[in-house]
Structure formats: C-alpha cells, structure tokens
Amino acid sequence: MRGLLLLLVLLLPLLHPGLPARAGAGGTRFVAIAFHDVVDRREDRAEDAVTTQSLVAFLDLLVAEGWTAVSLDEVAAAGAGGPPLPDKAILLTFDDGHRSFHERVYPLLLAYRMPAVLALVTSWLDVPPGGTVDYGGQPRAREQFVTWAEVRRMQASGLVEIASHSHDLHRVLPMNRKGNTAPAARTWAFDPATGTRETDAAHAARVRADLVRSRARIAAETGRAPRALVWPFGRFSGPALTAARDAGFTLALTLEPEAADARTPLALHRYYPTRDPDLGTIMFNLGFRPPVAETVRLA
Asked: At 176, which CATH number?
C-alpha cells in the first residue's frame, strides 16, 4: 500500500497537468515567448509567423490553465525584491513591429486583458509610406509594419509596452575575409577594404550610438524612453551589453529557450516558436508541464 501511495504522488502532476508548476526562486522565475508576425491563412506563413488561430488557441489555453500574463512592471518589481510573480507567470512579447500586431494581436490583448511587449526597429518605422524595409535581406513594403500613430494609440491602452529592437542593428555584418556574417550587435565588424576588424571600443561605440538613437526616436514619438531592449536575433557581445547599460536600458531580452528570472534583468530568456508549431509543441518547449520522473521505485 505504501508503495502504491508513493506511485500516485509521483504521477499526480501527469494526471492533473493543469496543476501549478511552482515558479521557485521566491517568485522571480517566469516563462517568456517571442512571437513575430501573425497571419490569418496558413499558406501565408513565413518561418517566423504563427496563425491567428494558433495564437487564439494559445491565449485560450493560458486562461483555461490558470496562467497569468505579466507586464515588465511586474517583472522589474519582482527582480528588485518587490511582490513575487505568480506561480504561472508568462511574458508575451512580439518582435519587429509587424502590422499584424495592430490588426490582429492588439484586439486580442484588449479582449483577453493581457499585457504584451512590442519591440520596434526604429529605422523601419522611419521609412516613408511607399518605401521598403530591408527585412532579413528581403524587401518588405513599409505598409507591412505599424505606424507611429498606431504605436502611440496602443501604448495609451496601458497593455502594450514599447521596447527597442535597435535602430539599425537588425542585420548582419561581415566578420572575416571569407565573407562570413554575424548579427550586428554580436560581431566585431570586418572592413574588407582595409582588412581590419573593429576594436572592442569601436564595437561598443557603434552599438551604443545605435541604441541611444533608438531610445531617442521612441521617446520623441511616444513620450517615453524604452527601458527594455530586445536584442536583434537574440545575439549580443560583452561590449554590446555594456553599451546597452550605458545607453540607459535596465531590461534586455534574449532568444535563449530557457526559463527567465527577474533577478537577471539584462538576460531575460524567451522561447521563439517558428513555423507555426502546434499547441502541444509550444507548451512542451515553454516547459508548461512538470518534468516526469525517469525512475519510479516502489518501496
């Protein structure tokens, strides 16, 4: 009988997957997810897009399973020793400023009363109407991204916090003579004309100048300088991190698929779903369910 009771205790989380998974660490741990574009039709999906249907199903799951979408205010407070985060805390983030955020995501946030972070590449928003944005080496119409007027309206709701996704670091730069490239905030840029590579100081200065410019543009358009930086491609160097601090950022988000901890505000990890994964895959990768014991020993 004692062995049977032990087995039932070990299996209880599996029989009731909706039970809270303790955040631990005094209520500072949470999960974060990095969405990008949201499309209505599956045939319109790019690698970084999910469908509206998938997003609605995901938000429904959060409600049904008792998850709490938290804001950066709550994350920052928990990291500073304030009120702990709830056991099932999740930070919703959306990168790049796709127009779909205003057209599809924002109405859902209003309906579900969930906060989210919107990360903007300010140089893309400064492209005039009718122009094109260099999106990962592919030209995209300026109209596929939000406008500053839409950003101001969404920020005023109190549900959307605007973060910087840099001014012009969302691209790759040459890193060696072979022509290999790497994210602009991660690499020491190589100049083929001179055969020289950036020094640490020059690398940090370039990144800092970009981030200062991004913060200034967002502040000018919204009346509020962003405190959060979402690293383009989730990649950065040591000097770049120092540059981000010097530029005034107190929160920084990566693309490491691990749980986040509010006590490390400049290294907040996020899971990045690609190719419109099914709900089970998203749940598994976010670690929604408690781990299964590898061995069950009966007494």
From this structure: 3.20.20.370
